[in-house]
Amino acid sequence: MRRILMMMFVIAVTVPALLVAAPAQAPPRFQTVTLHIFNRVFASFHDKIRISLKEEVRVGDTEYTAQLIQYVPEFDMDLKSHKIVTRSPQPKNPAFEVVVRKNGAPQDTAWAFMNMAPHYTRKSLLAFIATKIEFANAPVMVSQDTLAQRIMKRDEEKH
Predict the structure, then answer these.
(1) Confidence band for 139, pLDDT divided at 50, 70 and 90
(2) What are 102-111's pLDDT values in tens digits?
(3) Residue 76, phi then psi, degrees to nearest 5
(4) What one-character DSSP code corresponds to residue 122?
């Protein structure tokens, strides 16, 4: 009887300890993204920039600049409101909103995706693709998209 009571006590003490959830992993803190830029009119144009949130950089030797205004870790769109939302703080489908300016005046807003080819809107001149994301507290994330892989390989061969 004593043995049964002791076993029940051990079970009662250890089972709740096993049920305690592991501490949640902190979401990766975004630092920079590497974007490749393409031009609708000049098919041979290609530029590569490394940019952080709110930073504005010149695109090639043009009068255009690109400013990264938003990072969305898991891009999704609410189909009723047409608003961009994120489903989680983990970078499962990362996307970046970029404002394009010409001589300081906003011309376009574009999205750069990590897992999707660059796309042009009806009015856009430039398109972007994200190939690498650096985080402050997590390993670097490199795109597995086949086009992004070809772009990165071509870029490595040039240098």
Answers:
(1) very high
(2) 999 999 999 9
(3) -155, 160
(4) S
